[in-house]
Design brief:
Strand content of chain B: under 5%
Strand order of the largest sheet of chain B: 1-2
Oligomer: heterodimer
Shape of chain B: globular
Helix content of chain B: 55-70%
Order of helices and strands of chain B: HHHEHHHHHHHEHHHHHHHH
Number of strands of chain A: 9
Number of domains of chain A: 2
CATH superfamily of the largest domain in chain A: Rieske [2Fe-2S] iron-sulphur domain
Number of helices of chain A: 3
CATH class of the largest domain in chain A: Mainly Beta
Structural class of chain A: alpha+beta
Radius of gyration of chain B: 25 Å
Helix content of chain A: 10-25%
């Protein structure tokens, strides 16, 4: 096999052709090796994603709120998160309009809620007084403490209209879960989808309703 | 003339001779231990390097024994820790050694880092020693954070919830990334199980590897000393530094004194005050994890609180203050700074970018950025420090003042992070945050002004 031109042989005893071929083969081997290594990583990365059983745990929950008195609050667990159910008194409802100027997103335009909860009370037209809200601070996911009393409060301020205070980083929310200005959180607490069947509320499902 | 140690060893020990032909045991021993020369004027501050290694070994050892009884399962974890505390013979001791050990590890590391800063151990040629050390610091924080979830107490749960939520602020991929890290839509059994894997396998391996690299880098350039001068400037005819003594036995014996003192304090806490009044073991963590109830005063363990305070201090008013400061720096740059026009334009563009980011970014995202930046600042230290001298003994007055102010800010941030936020405390945290960053940002300036004292040519040493 004397195909190689002798004059092309360089100091290494390798022809230009051979050199090119070697570079090509080295490149291809390294390239495919890298792709193979990359593909091999995929199952390990994917194994850390939520499992099928974790995905299934996100089913809607139901709660009968007929025994919930005015001014009372309960927490219901949905998808491992606390959902606040608060039956607001008229005084609490009045407070919502008084503090508009102190809020960062009073119209909930930058916040997460179903379309039927985009209003001052952030509640369904049919049950304005009932606040249904994920009790999860939009800053870093703590569960804010309820400050239902109207009046001076060490954390909420001297002229508090009631609200929620996050003990982690001091974010403040009103009784519709709307965030105050100049606190670490910048959006209102989320409202989950929900629907009613008499006095039973289903949280996590609304059959795509818009009112 | 005395017989050389090497030769003595070889002829005296046929076994070592056999080994040395196959493995460089004697060579490594001599290069890194018996003939590794360090300055003879090491003081108190030089205890912390070896103490950190001791602490690492102790944590590994106690950790192994805890793993024999602990169950990484959301249903069983809390009870298994109580089982270790009550039923396992001496389980309480092993667990307290480990939990107190974590805090002591950070005490040692913080003092070790402070030693580096005051004696200029981060300066040329030890930049890589410092950088690897900073990576160790970050890895140690990850290790401690993941370990803290394992008891599955309520503070464990909510602490992890808060810190993992930090990743949410990354644009576009944040929420998906958080979900991937948690392995669930909330902190759950999946999260606990993987944190256990990271805490007992991945991070300990990384830490040991990093410590090895830290020592390799250190031994390449040699240890610094309290005078911040090069002991190899004055060597004897064999090339050994006149002011150097061998690591073994001299430094080792000295370090053992440090070990004895340290053990008195460490074991004193373990036996008599293992919860540190709620600082070392938080009270809320004696209740099992409850996904519906955030503890009333959620705080991380003390060693994270300075950074946590910075995170918490980041509100709109802090961003506004930072915008004003950015503006002032640009004005000062154009009027007073003696730098080229290119640098001025470059800095101005950078400042405009920062200004726009501050104006339109949210306090939440900036909180995370500032907290990360607070740690990144340490990595930059070797290049921010422009002083002609290394050691605090010869530094100019402006540096000393700045260092004291930084310490005050750092400790204050740490204290504030352990307490519930109030408007007054938030303001104080914001002032301290500005002071914290000012220390690093202004370092090139205050280290290049003022009158430094002349460095001695030989280390300052008085024989005892």
């Amino acid at each position: 096999m004397a195909d190689n031109n002798v004059s092309d042989v360089n100091a290494d005893g390798m022809s230009v052709e051979d050199r090119k071929r070697r570079r090509f083969l080295t490149g291809m081997t390294a390239g495919f090796g890298a792709i193979g290594a990359g593909v091999a990583v995929v199952p390990f990365v994917m194994s850390m994603a939520p499992s099928e059983s974790a995905k299934n745990a996100g089913a809607p929950v139901q709660f009968d709120f007929s025994k919930l008195q005015e001014g009372q609050m309960v927490k219901v667990e949905w998808r491992g998160k606390p959902v606040v159910l608060l039956s607001r008194t008229q005084e609490m409802m009045d407070g919502l309009t008084k503090i508009r100027g102190e809020l960062a997103d009073p119209d909930s335009s930058a916040s997460s809620q179903p379309i039927y909860a985009i209003n001052e009370q952030r509640a369904d037209e049919h049950s304005k007084q009932l606040l249904v809200m994920e009790g999860v601070c939009t800053h870093l996911g703590c569960s804010p403490v309820e400050k239902l009393a109207i009046g001076p409060d060490p954390q909420m301020g001297d002229d508090s209209q009631g609200g929620f205070f996050c003990p982690c980083h001091g974010s403040k929310f009103d009784l519709a879960g709307r965030v105050y200005k100049d606190v670490p959180a910048t959006t209102n607490m989320a409202v989950p989808p929900y629907m009613f069947d008499g006095t039973v509320i289903t949280i996590g499902e609304d059959n795509g309703r818009i009112t | 003339m005395a017989i050389h140690r090497h030769d003595n060893h070889k002829s005296a020990n046929a076994v070592m001779e056999w080994v040395d032909k196959r493995f460089p045991a004697t060579k490594v021993w001599n290069e890194h231990i018996a003939e590794y020369m360090a300055a003879k004027n090491f003081n108190f501050w030089y205890f912390f390097g070896s103490l950190a290694i001791l602490m690492l070994v102790l944590q590994l050892a106690t950790g192994i024994f805890l793993t024999m009884h602990y169950k990484p399962d959301a249903q069983l974890a809390f009870a298994s820790v109580e089982y270790i505390m009550r039923d396992v013979p001496f389980g309480w001791l092993v667990r307290y050694l480990h939990s107190t050990g974590a805090s002591m590890f950070f005490v040692i590391i913080y003092l070790h880092m402070f030693r580096g800063v005051i004696y200029g151990s981060h300066r040329e040629p030890r930049e890589l020693v410092w950088l690897i050390g900073c990576v160790i610091f970050v890895a140690l924080m990850a290790e401690a954070f993941m370990g803290y979830l394992l008891p599955w107490g309520n503070m464990s749960y909510w602490g992890a919830q808060v810190i993992l939520s930090l990743f949410d602020v990354i644009p576009y991929v944040g929420p998906a990334l958080t979900e991937w890290i948690r392995g669930d839509f909330v902190i759950s059994d999946a999260t606990l199980n993987r944190f256990f894997a990271f805490h007992v396998i991945l991070l300990p391996l990384i830490l040991v590897a990093l410590v090895f690299l830290h020592l390799v880098a250190l031994h390449q350039v040699g240890s610094n000393n309290p005078d911040g001068i090069d002991i190899y400037d004055h060597v004897d005819e064999d090339g050994k530094p006149l002011d150097g003594i061998a690591f073994f036995p001299y430094i080792v014996i000295k370090d053992l004194i440090g070990v004895a003192g340290f053990l008195i304090i460490y074991l004193g806490i373990v036996f008599f005050w293992p919860d540190g009044g709620g600082v070392l073991l938080e009270k809320d963590n004696f209740a099992p994890a409850n996904s519906l109830q955030t503890p009333p005063d959620i705080v991380p363990l003390w060693y994270f609180t300075p950074f946590y305070s910075i995170l918490r201090a980041s509100t709109t008013s802090l961003l506004f203050a930072l915008e004003i400061i950015t503006g002032l720096i640009v004005i000062w740059l154009w009027i007073r700074a003696k730098v080229s026009i290119k640098a001025k334009i470059g800095f101005t563009l950078l400042a405009i970018g920062v200004f726009v980011g501050l104006q339109f970014g949210s306090g939440k995202a900036w909180g995370v950025i500032l907290m990360a930046a607070a740690i990144v600042c340490f990595f930059l230290l070797p290049w921010l420090d422009r002083s002609p001298v290394y050691s605090i003994r010869y530094r100019s007055l402006p540096f000393k003042i700045a260092l004291v102010l930084f310490l005050v800010a750092f400790v204050t941030l740490g204290y504030l992070g352990m307490n519930a936020p109030t408007p007054g405390k938030t303001l104080l945290a914001q002032i301290c945050t500005v002071a914290y960053f000012a220390f690093f940002a202004l370092m090139p300036w205050f280290t290049s002004i003022g009158k430094t004292k002349p460095e001695p040519s030989r280390v300052v040493y008085e024989a005892h």
